Amino acid sequence: MSALDDRAQLGGFIIHPVPEPEESEEESFDTTFDFRDGRIYTHVVVTDFDEMGPPRIGRFGVVQSSTHIASGKRVAIKTVSLFNAKTKTIKKEADISRRLNHRNVITFYGMTAENFYCCLCFELMDVDLSTFYTHIYKDEKARLPENMIGAIASSMVNGLMYLKEQKIIHRDVKPSNVLLNRLGNVKICDFGVSGYLSRSVAKTYCGTSAYLAPEMVAPQNGGKTIYTVQADIWSLGITLYEISKGKHPYDPVGKSTFVLLSEIQAKEAPVLNDSYYSGNLCEFVNKCLNKDVLHRPFYRRKGSIRGLIDLSFYIEYRDRVENSMYMGTPKSTRIKIRENESESGSESVKMKVRMIK
To answer: Do 101 and 165 meet the contact criterion of CB atoms below 8 Å apart?
Structure first.
């Protein structure tokens, strides 16, 4: 069933398609979501959903699982206080999310607002990649299997390449913005700081410091920040390095933003050189982490520079993923994850993720 079919099942919880919006500084917000450019958002109240699950605190809000009563569909509801968040950021996430329909991008169902809170509704996944790999590496001898890294990498490339085709740059690619479920599906989420590309470039400085590309840290065009989707590819490389080694290459914990950005600018690019993994995996990550944008690849070939989809590592796992649709084969292996109990005292959650062999 397609993402669009899923949206149709959610009764009135639908966003009507409209032309791509122009950038606007307008900050007004009302519960019917009738913005000045004609975007109409169906109003849905909290009582349309069953009891909320335990909260998970994110950078821009609280995410809870729930059930849409009319359809019985399990969903994730992101609740954002309109006092603490920029209205423009919320609108941008909704505007971009509702246009997307790809198996490696999270499905967006709709939004509503009540009592100074905005609720955005997405398909429910089981865990984010940051939580997943952190759990694996609690065992000092454990490593994330290359076949799982391959499935994650190829899925992320597919999702990011689709965004590029929609003239969208994510700008905040990192493990916590990649979601997994027990079927092994991999989906990119969180478009709050994403933007539309104009002539294939973007100019706004934003994102998470530890994952920013060097060209975003030290602009070269007369002090102006101008970059392409290659910035997302750098962040992809950092993400894959991190889940391969079990640690971030710049070790950002405890560092000020200034120190961290200085290291990204001044130090040599991280290099994945690990005998545990194949040369193809290391090559893929290291090409993503080329500090020279003239030699860092795009998704597709450009001139003499091969694209990510031309590299052996992507091709190998693209074929495996497409042939299996992420589902377990007779040789599939399952990894069990038990998340720690939250501070609210909720029951721990067991998740199984299938890997492709």
So the answer is: no
Radius of gyration of the chain (CA): 20
Kindly state whether residue 5 falls inside one of the protein's structural domains.
no
Give the span between the Cα atoms of 109 and 187, in whole angstroms: 15
In contact, 197 and 96? CB cutoff 8 Å: no
Residue of 51, 207, 189 lying closest to 127 (CA atoms): 189
Contact 241, 249 (CB under 8 A): yes
Output DSSP code: residue 59. Answer: S
Same domain for 50 and 91, yes or no, is yes
Q: Are 18 and 39 in contact (CB under 8 A)?
A: yes
The pLDDT tens digits for 73-108 are: 889 998 888 776 667 778 888 889 989 999 999 998
**Integer angstrom CA distances of residue 9 from 2, 5, 13:** 11, 7, 9
Binned at pLDDT 50, 70 and 90, residue 220 comes out as: low
Quick one: 304 and 203 in the same domain?
yes
- Whole-Å CA distances, 139 to 42, 229, 308, 331: 47, 35, 32, 24
> Is residue 201 pLDDT above 80, yes or no?
no
Beta pairing partners, 15: 41
% of residues, the chain, pLDDT over 90: 43
Between the CA of residue 65 and those of 124, 125, 134, 139, 313, what are the distances in Å? 7, 9, 22, 29, 35
- Residue written as tokens 């949206």? 7
Query: What domain range is 231 assigned to?
Result: 127-324
List active site positions: 172
Helix (H) or strand (E) holding 353: strand 350-355
What CATH number does the domain containing 150 carry? 1.10.510.10
Q: What is the count of structural domains for the chain?
A: 2
Pairing of strands 178-180, 350-355: unpaired
Model pLDDT for residues 316-328, shown as the tens digit of each residue: 998 776 554 443 3
pLDDT at 354: 43
Same domain, 157 and 233: yes
CA–CA dist 111, 116 (Å, integer): 13
For the chain, how many helices (H) and strands (E)? 9, 12
**Is residue 345 a part of any domain in this protein?**
no
